[in-house]
Amino acid sequence: MTSKSTGLSVTDPLRARLFMLLALWVVAIIVMALLSPYFWRASTIPYLLQYVPILGLLGLGQTLVILAGGPGIDLSVGSILSLVGVAVGALFSIGVDIWIASAIGIVLGAALGCLNGFLVNVLRIPSLMATLATMFAFGGFALAVTAGRPIGGFPASFSWLGQGHTFGLPNAFVFVLLPVALILHVMLTRTTVGRHIVACGNDDRAAHLSGLNVIRLRIGLYTLSGVLAALGSIISMSWFLAARPDAGRGMELLAVTIAVLGGTHIFGGTGGVPGTIVAILIVTTLQIGLQLANISAAWQLGLIGMLLIVSVSRLSTLRFGQGAKS
């Protein structure tokens, strides 16, 4: 039991996994370059990083929710992304400044995430069922109020975040994803809140008996996940200069895949930001490389699915060995 309290049993497997993921990313780059000569072009890196921030924010939110245990999961993040976009587009269409509308959208994302947290942690609805229900509700509402049509007409100045570049890198990557990832990494590794999140994921009953408000903490993480999904929605709108009611479709499962591939144990207590970031790069590299090689999207999903199976089985082995040693 000592190893858990010191954090050694958590840090060492995660470090080993991070090195494994980095090696896997290098292999993915080499294989994609062999499949398509276009992958080596200098323009590939900015193009690849253009896709990273939106999915990255969803993956980071998913990491936090799963890490705190429960077991928690948020299948509604893609639908939150879509609904926030529709709400921002509606506000803009009635004359609200686009940046003010975006700020309101972030508040809406927080409210939707908080609703998920309330359903799961107060009403005690299993997270899989609760967030599956809100996924359909949020996504269905976004489609219903727009009749499936995108809302456009955003000002060209709004494209700075989604289309602009600084030092050759996408602004959304430099000014949103990297700062958010750094803040969350410091929170998890250097603050009391981070220790409380890991403690809840390891043993929520023990955390409760030690005085932690487990319910409030988990609701807060669902709320934060909603905020990150809203940020992803703003980046998406800025990129396409339109709010699409189906913008987040399918992203919730990719977000779960990224979190688990990055080393977050599906039952909580083990995980971190660096692994999630590298997992995002691996998944995006595979997607872009296979697209450039003209390989069917079905093969893309199949390959990512196989990666996830190997990842989960490997992580379970590490966790089992860790528990046996403690």
Total count of domains:
1
Classify the beta-strand content into a percent band.
Answer: under 5%
| CATH fold topology | ABC transporter involved in vitamin B12 uptake, BtuC
Name of the level-1 CATH class: Mainly Alpha
Order of helices and strands: HHHHHHHEEHHHHHHH
For the sheet with most strands, the description reads: 2 strands, antiparallel
Q: Reading side by side through the largest sheet, how are the strands ordered?
A: 1-2
Q: Structural class of the secondary structure composition?
A: mainly alpha
Number of helices in the DSSP assignment: 14
- Count of beta strands: 2
The mean pLDDT is: 88
Runs with pLDDT <50, length 5+?
1-11, 320-326
Overall morphology? globular
Distance between the termini: 5 Å
CATH architectural group: Orthogonal Bundle
Explain this structure to me?
76% of the residues lie in helices and 1% in strands. By secondary structure, the protein is an all-alpha fold. It has one domain: ABC transporter involved in vitamin B12 uptake, BtuC (Orthogonal Bundle). The N terminus and C terminus are likely disordered.
Question: What topology emerges from the helices and strands here?
Answer:
Layout: H1 2-6, H2 8-35, H3 44-67, H4 77-93, H5 98-121, H6 127-146, H7 159-163, E1 165-166, E2 169-170, H8 171-190, H9 192-202, H10 204-209, H11 214-240, H12 251-261, H13 273-292, H14 297-325
Antiparallel strand pairs: 1-2
Helix pairs in contact: 2-13, 2-14, 3-8, 3-11, 3-12, 3-13, 4-5, 4-6, 4-11, 5-6, 5-11, 8-9, 12-13, 12-14, 13-14
Brief sketch in words of this structure:
76% of the residues lie in helices and 1% in strands.
